[in-house]
Amino acid sequence: MGVHPKESTAQNIENIKRQIGEIAAIYDWDMEVNTTDPEFYKWTQWIFVQMFKKGLAYEKQMPINWCPSCKTGLANEEVVNGKCERCGADVTKKNLRQWMLKITENTDRLLGDLDKLDWPEKFKKMQAEWIGKNHGAEVDFKLEDRDEAITVYTTRPDTLHAATFMVLAPQHKLAAELATDETYHCPKKTMVYTPSLIWKFI
Ligand SMILES: [Zn+2]
């Protein structure tokens, strides 16, 4: 739009507030939170620095939704039926170095302290499900003629003896390397970016 986002954002906020006033909706503006205000986000940055110092923030390659036409990452909500909401192009996955927060380190505390919150039960339940604690094992499957192994997390290691194959996600770092004519398997033509694999156990 040729306008600095700082200016357009401030204008949009003013506009929305004017409209809210015009429909006579009642809000306590003393309680307003503006996440684009440096006075607000200096604290989210401060929290991040504290987590970084404690080793709870780390960088990792993680796949994101990628629109090759807009050349931008997309939130799940911006992907409609596998297509970019903005331009309609097929959305692919792209590995990107991203900051992650190690919430798993504090799972017990996060779950335990939910009881202290004066929240409706359904929100507490949603929060607990988001934290998603479960018990399981990581099992290494050795690859034929290679040193690497594929690590699989399972909550049911007792059922492993019945397993006959595994599926490797297309974004797995070994997927492109391991693909052969026999193991290459691509359910959706539009997703041809990196191959997904069906890998027989050895
Ligand atoms: Zn797009």
Automatic annotation (TrEMBL):
The keyword Ligase applies. InterPro entries: Leu-tRNA-ligase, Leu_tRNA-synth_edit, Methionyl/Leucyl_tRNA_Synth, Rossmann-like_a/b/a_fold, Val/Leu/Ile-tRNA-synth_edit. Residues 2-91 form the Methionyl/Leucyl tRNA synthetase domain. GO terms for molecular function: aminoacyl-tRNA deacylase activity; ATP binding; leucine-tRNA ligase activity. Its EC number is 6.1.1.4. One of its GO terms (cellular component) is cytosol. GO terms for biological process: leucyl-tRNA aminoacylation. It comes from the Bacteria. Residues 129-182 form the Leucyl-tRNA synthetase editing domain. Keywords: Aminoacyl-tRNA synthetase, ATP-binding, Ligase, Nucleotide-binding, Protein biosynthesis. Pfam families: tRNA-synt_1_2, tRNA-synt_1g. PANTHER family: LEUCINE--TRNA LIGASE, MITOCHONDRIAL, LEUCYL-TRNA SYNTHETASE. Belongs to the class-I aminoacyl-tRNA synthetase family. This is leucine--tRNA ligase. It comes from Anaerostipes caccae (strain DSM 14662 / CCUG 47493 / JCM 13470 / NCIMB 13811 / L1-92).
